[in-house]
Amino acid sequence: MISNDSGIDVASSGSRTAEAPTRRRRTIVTCAWLFALGLIVRLAYLVFFGIESQEGGDMDGYIALARNLAQGHGLTFDGVTPATFRPPLFSSLLGAWCYLLGSTSLDTMVAFQVFVQTLCAPMTYLLVRQTQRSERFAMGAGLFIATYPFIFSNVSLVLQEPTLMLIATALGMSILAWCRHPTPWRSALVGLLFGLGALAKAPFLIAPAIALLVYVLGRPFRRQLPARQVALAVILAAFAVLPWTFRNYRVSGGRFVLINSQGWTQLIWMASDGIYQPRESLSDPRQETPTRTKGVALSYGNEAGYDYLLRKNDELLEQGLSGPAVTEALGAAARSYLLRHPAFVLKLVLRGMVLVFSPDAGPRLYRFFWIRVVAMVLFHVPLALGLLAGILRALREWNAPMSILSLFVVAYLLVHAPATSAGGRYSVPVIPLLIAITGYSLCRDRSRPGPADAA
Prior knowledge:
This protein is an all-alpha fold. It has helices at residues 5-49, 59-70, 88-101, 106-129, 135-147, 149-152, 161-180, 184-200, 206-216, 219-224, 227-251, 263-272, 303-318, 324-340, 342-356, 369-396, 400-416, 431-442, 451-454, and strands at residues 293-294, 299-300. The chain is 68% helix and 1% strand. It has a two-stranded antiparallel sheet with strand order 1-2. The protein starts with a helix and ends with a helix.
């Protein structure tokens, strides 16, 4: 008897081949309307509410760096002295955008924010399609990024979160594609995005470390992650970062600054819980003892840490230190304080983990407390639960790409938790990854090759 199995297989393969152009066209159309919808929503918001003030936050620094870069002065705050305080990628991209458009106005910079944030909507759709088979869930994910008020309402602030979201989403897509069908070129792309992510923000350095960790956790993971390709990704990440590290060493007078020097101020912020500003010279006015800051539901401020930093700051200035050397030494003292007070650090982490899974309420939405609570319960808490379920499923199933992504998100949020205040700004860049991980935990797995892919 002659079997018809081979004929059936050929017909099935031919059917899938014929359907491929239709699927590609449908994907392109979906991406186009998600981008168009996101763009319309953001432009309508800006027309109705206008561009927000850029004073009182990190925006001034990014604007100064981008403006000076576009005008040919390099990455400087004052047009003269090379800066190491901020990570370079966002300001460099923004400066290049301004240079190409021939304008350094605030409107031009906000246009960059609109474009990048809008682009994250179709990219989220593409990312989620790689993790599970529900087309509706993937479209819903893209629609969420396109229309969620606690994302698009901050589009007029010149901050790096949209760029970080773009990098994180692209990194997720590249890791999934690499582990699904490992090739040297795909591992090289992952390594490049590891490096770009680190140049966007130092905590992205966790990503290659997580990839190495997953590789050594067990043989099933190693079958999905070829050793040479893992090494290639890590080496390319290092090659992307080290030239900038060398530049920092040269312009800072021999100080080792891997990505940026902001980490010292973060430690000072954490030790005082946000109520101490360091003095870098004796001419700076001595700060009066502040009181604890009270929000709607939480309070901030560590008076014991404040008193310690105040005394230490005075000692450093009396020793003749000034400028960045004071901040660096005070940051080291703050680190020592934090190591001696683990209970205080635990309190910061627990409070921060609650805050990172809350909406990023900008100046216009911050006062709507109950709306923020509803959004937190409906969207952010389920994403937290989805992250937990996704980690458990990925490790149980020995799923290398989802293990890397879920562990990276956890580590990224834990690093940011102690310095988090007021809302979930620091979780915004990984919201697409959180959605993808939640979808993976709920739906049929598509992150690894199945029978249809093998055919």
